[in-house]
Amino acid sequence: MTKTESKDMMSKISEAERNGSKTKIIDDKYDYDPYDQPAPENATSYADSLTILLKFSLGTGILAMPRSFHNAGYVVGFIGTMVIGFLTTYTIHMIMSAEYELCKRKRVPNMSYPETMEAAFEYGPRKMRKFKNAAWFMCYIFLLIYQTGTSCIYLVFIADNLKEELDLFFGGSTDIRMVIVYLLIPLILISMVRNLKLISPLASLGHIFVMICFSIIFYYIFRDIPNIAERKPVGTMQGIPLFFGTVLFAMEAIGSVMPVKNEMAKPEQFTSRFGVINMAMVPIVLLYTVIGLFGYLQYGDKTKGSITLNMPQHNLFGHTVKLLLAASVYINYAISNYVIYDLVWPCLTSKMEKNSHKLSYEYCVRIAIVLITFGFSIAIPNLELFISFLGSLCLVNLGIFFPVILQTLTFWDEFRGPRFYTFLIKNIFLIIIAILGFVIGVGRSSIEIYNTVILPSFS
């Protein structure tokens, strides 16, 4: 849509408002259907998109699920994981329905998450329009923090697993921060790769490693399960906020949802009843619940931040799981940093167009990304607390709060009478959940980080 067309559309909306119309949706939006537009080059099929989304969702978060059940107890953990899984699926549908509606109004085939937030304010109630740039910026910043935090978690995960192997091989106890220092050069080298196609073969090999490791993990968590009476059905009040943040981080692949949908040949298949998102979330929720529940039942109070750290130390299978998953996550770290680069570099491109040192600056940005993740990992080398903090900080906002605001502004004038009040009460309830989850989750995680990581450093 050109700027002239956009201004014309906004003038029509304003005229409709002055005439007392309750709807801001103008008639000619129905002439445009985003799903009827030409598919992108190299568009993905339904099966491809389902596979990609499943791969994105099976990250390091799933390995932290047993520890989250330890924090919540097996009853609260089981019910809570199911509820969060349903809530996650529902809020993704909220984002997708709002994006589809806003694409019709703007007459564009698709938008990114920050662009969708901006459009919701732009086409929402008049008093909210002045906040459209702030909405884009907030969404962008939280996505950037989330992706950077994900890279930090990958780095701490690699260091945790290598530390176990180094301790066993050399004896004694290696400082995890020193392991992170040893990893700095290899991380910089792999992050210098400018073309993801060069990493693709390694990523495929990494997926094979993951399948092998999960087979071994399943063998150990289902073997000789102890009596359930020995485990806590309900955790502590201090542990439940950590559970909430961990499960949100583990399940919420919010950074990949819209890109996957936007690359589909038939994007309408993403949100249909048996669409990609529903068919992906069912096995994801079940798998996370099974690993969390049986991992906790197997290891109880000895459950660690990643289930890999509970694997037998003096056993070939235990070594295999730790080393293969560390190698797989090393590849994922490079891909995660590539996403961060894609978020940051466009903001600098306008200043680099005619710069003869553009390539040098690009490499400097890539190195800076590694150094930032390195710094945060050195500061908080605790996998469990890092995951919980990031989930409560970013994914409560990206996965619950922002989708509710998005839907509320987009469909503000779509409902009347009892339907409007039902719509409003439901969204207010979700906003309250998001605010409580954010305040309690971030607060509790911050206290644990201070007591566990920061305070011992000064004692």
Automatic annotation (TrEMBL):
Keyword Membrane among UniProt keywords: yes
Domain Amino acid transporter transmembrane positions: 45-443
Segments crossing the lipid bilayer: 72-96, 135-157, 169-190, 202-222, 242-260, 280-299, 319-340, 361-380, 386-412, 424-443
Keywords: Membrane, Transmembrane, Transmembrane helix
Topology relative to the membrane: Multi-pass membrane protein
Range of residues in the leader sequence: none
UniProt name for this protein: Amino acid transporter transmembrane domain-containing protein
Protein species of origin: Bemisia tabaci
